[in-house]
Design brief:
The protein has 9 helices and no strands. The protein is mainly alpha-helical. α7 packs antiparallel against α8. The longest helix has 27 residues. The protein is globular and about 60 Å long.
Length: 213
């Protein structure tokens, strides 16, 4: 017992919210120790970004006694430890991915990570029964695909810069189209590097939300 909470029994499957907390705690312990950071130091760093998590609470989380964890805590800890938040919720190593599923749809490991990042739907790859929200998933996935395509285009432009002017112009045209599609969906395209800000400038009033009615 610790603070009135029984020690988790490894033989008894945990409800997924509790399993998630145990998984996050295990990952926090591993990553914190790998960086030679004490629980007190982690607590202090979290306080610096507005998250109050005492050293003893961190210890309880890491040891599996604390069976709740908030999204703000996951994001804050990931920020302080310098790791992608998804790797706190969906560990990829074989040992850490064993045990209870940490997400409500029964996913863990890489499939869970793909769902969290929006790369795959939760029913992939197990042919699960697809919910009625499939069309909405497809729409949101397409939005993420546009942002990823934009990022890839920017990276390609910098690789081509100074080497192939024709390719640079083609990439710029692709970025301009992608940014227009994002705006049509009602979202804001990613900010442009200084070297690429002429892409929006060349769009002029056509794509800045103005109308000529």
């Amino acid at each position: 017992m610790c603070d009135g909470v029984p020690v988790p029994d490894p033989k008894t499957p945990l409800p997924w919210p509790e399993a998630l907390a145990v998984t996050v705690g295990r990952r926090v312990a591993h990553l914190r120790k790998a960086q030679k950071m004490t629980a007190q130091q982690l607590s202090g760093a979290l306080a610096g970004i507005g998250i109050e998590l005492k050293r003893t609470v961190i210890g309880n989380l890491e040891s599996g006694y604390r069976r709740t964890v908030t999204l703000a805590e996951v994001l804050g800890i990931a920020y302080v430890l310098g790791v992608p938040p998804v790797l706190l919720m969906a560990p990829l190593s074989e040992d850490e991915a064993q045990g209870d599923a940490t997400l409500p749809v029964g996913l863990k490991g890489w499939p869970a990570a793909q769902w969290i990042t929006g790369e795959r739907p939760p029913w992939f790859p197990y042919n699960r029964i697809r919910p009625s929200s499939v069309p909405y998933w497809d729409e949101q996935y397409e939005l993420l695909r546009l942002y990823r395509s934009h990022e890839a285009g920017v990276e390609a432009w910098f690789r081509a810069r100074g080497k192939d002017w024709g390719q640079q112009r083609a990439i710029e045209d692709g970025l301009r189209t992608t940014r227009e599609l994002i705006r049509r969906e009602g979202y804001q395209p990613p900010p442009l590097w200084v070297e690429l800000q002429h892409i929006d400038e060349r769009e002029g009033g056509e794509d800045d939300g103005s109308t000529d009615d």
